[in-house]
Design goal:
Length: 216
């Protein structure tokens, strides 16, 4: 297994200690640094350049979402998992727009944390089961209130394949290779998916995929 270096950020010492123990119980996973505020997190991450960052949303001096944005602007290859006590969709949307690939609630089981880190480290998305359920319920209720149909059925079979791969974090080249099509064709399918579903960014596409249960 490829070694995974992790920077952990939370302003509560006991939380950091607990999360660190879970992470370091896994083979080849190492927490190389801990940060107690957002500014310290950005500084440590830029210096150490870890493969993955686990960060709380609510931190002093600089919140986790803004810290994520600053980190990924300079280290786009670094993966970020948000760890939060808030199941509010607004936080989730902001986190994804900042570049985070996963959102895990602090009351999740140890196994969920391990699954989340594994998925995010591989470039996939991960959401707490309870968060995904809330998002799906909100989505269904939103459609019912507006009296509109889900546009997913308008996608072709190929577009649905592209939709899932993009939601899982695959690049256009990876999509093209997996489906044995040209990169330009993959890009075209991706554009058609966004247009048909009335989505405007990859973050919105990921949220849509979670709401439909296409990814978890």
């Amino acid at each position: 297994m490829k070694p995974l270096r992790i920077v952990l950020a939370d302003d509560h010492t006991l939380v950091r200690q607990g999360v660190r123990k879970i992470l370091e119980d896994q083979d080849h996973w190492t927490v190389v640094s801990e940060a107690k505020d957002g500014r310290e997190l950005v500084k440590q991450t830029l210096e150490l350049q870890p493969e993955l960052v686990v960060v709380d949303v609510a931190m002093p001096l600089l919140n986790g979402i803004e810290a994520t944005r600053q980190i990924l602007r300079k280290l786009p290859a670094t993966k970020v998992l948000i760890l939060s006590m808030h199941a509010d969709e607004a936080y989730i949307i902001q986190s994804l727009e900042a570049g985070a690939r996963g959102y895990l609630l602090k009351d999740s089981a140890d196994t969920d944390l391990v699954r989340a880190v594994t998925a995010v480290a591989e470039g996939k998305s991960f959401f707490s089961p309870s968060v995904a359920a809330v998002m799906l319920d909100d989505y269904v209720r939103h459609l019912a209130e507006k009296g509109i149909a889900d546009r997913y059925s308008s996608l072709t079979e190929r577009e649905r394949e592209v939709f899932q791969l993009v939601a899982e974090g695959r690049t256009n080249k990876e999509v093209a290779d997996l489906l044995c099509i040209a990169v330009a064709t993959a890009e075209t399918h991706r554009a058609h998916v966004l247009q048909k579903l009335d989505l405007h960014s990859t973050a919105e596409l990921v949220l849509y995929a979670v709401r439909r249960g296409v990814i978890s």
